[in-house]
Design a protein that fits this description.
The longest helix has 15 residues, at about 50-65. Helices cover about 55% and strands about 5% of the residues. It has helices at about 20-25, 30-40, 50-65, 70-85, 90-95, 125-140, 145-160, 170-180, 185-200, 200-215, 220-230, 235-250, 255-265, 270-285, 290-300; strands spanning about 15, 50, 95-100, 100-105, 110, 120. By secondary structure, it is α+β, with helices and mostly antiparallel strands. Helix 9 runs parallel beside helix 11 (about 220-230) and helix 13 runs antiparallel to helix 14. The strands form two sheets. The chain has a four-stranded antiparallel beta sheet with strand order 3-4-5-6. A two-stranded antiparallel ribbon has the order 1-2. It folds into three domains: about 15-125, no CATH class; about 145-210, Serine Threonine Protein Phosphatase 5, Tetratricopeptide repeat, CATH 1.25.40.10; about 220-319, Serine Threonine Protein Phosphatase 5, Tetratricopeptide repeat (Alpha Horseshoe).
Length: about 325
Amino acid sequence: MRDAARPTGMAKPERVFTLRELTRLLRLTPKRAGQLKRLGLLRGDAAGYRFRELVAARVASALLEGGATVRKVREALDGARRLAPDAETPLAELRLVVQDQQIVVEQDRLRLDPRTGQALLDFESGDLERETRESLLMGMVRPLIPPSDAAEIWFARASAWDGDPERWEAAVEAYERVVDIDPGYAAAWNNLGLLQHRMGRYERAQACYSKAIEADDSCCQAAFNLGSLHEDLSDLSTAIGWYRRALEMEPDYADAHFNLAGVLGKAGQPDAAALHWRRYLELDLGSPWARIARSHLEGGDGGPGEGVHEGDDRPEADQ
């Protein structure tokens, strides 16, 4: 696996999700996607979505799932912008919940009406004392942060750390916390596998990628990474199988066409490789790697290419 050179001091590009990836990660139905478009959280352009925008869409989707109407979510969003005027994506930076068919903002120990900014209910110390006593008597501990939110918090931390080799171990621990909280979190399993892969822990990486596919059988990134892993292990036939599996899940997956073409070239199948070099150029003509694809086509050798894996500094598809 090869990391492309980056000029010294240049910041790592922020991870960008495609609309297809966002739709799959949030498991949006056509109805829910339509509602998010009406709220301005989904767009028709090809610019992609940053992580904070993905979180904002997830929050809005959860509010709608909880019974809020599009109008109420829009009013809450407008109010959240007033409550946090410096927030770039208020839905990702404030905690909004549905309570008694009303959207409220939880901030510190207050619940606020996002439309007016007025406090609705202070958490009474007597209630807190009573809940503490009940918890001790019943042997239960109520988490301060709901598990689903805790998983998102650790995922966000891990995502912020996994681009820095000095913080890889911390990112591994953070992703492990995510999957402990939510064993079905496919994106976390995939990214955990990617870090293990980068660190040369191939058996662990393979186990994590497999867990990602178990959690979400449409996780094309994990299938791609399994192809990359087996390519690194010089198991070309298995690598070809996983790259083809990734393309079955996502036929326009440019990186999978690129890597599959390279492996087919190494395996002595230049004609098959050429098909995927051409498709890659159709999908990603403007990238620096298009020159490599074009050189193989012009040379008529079909490969081998310079393979990439999920996390190299060409267009990434870690999650």
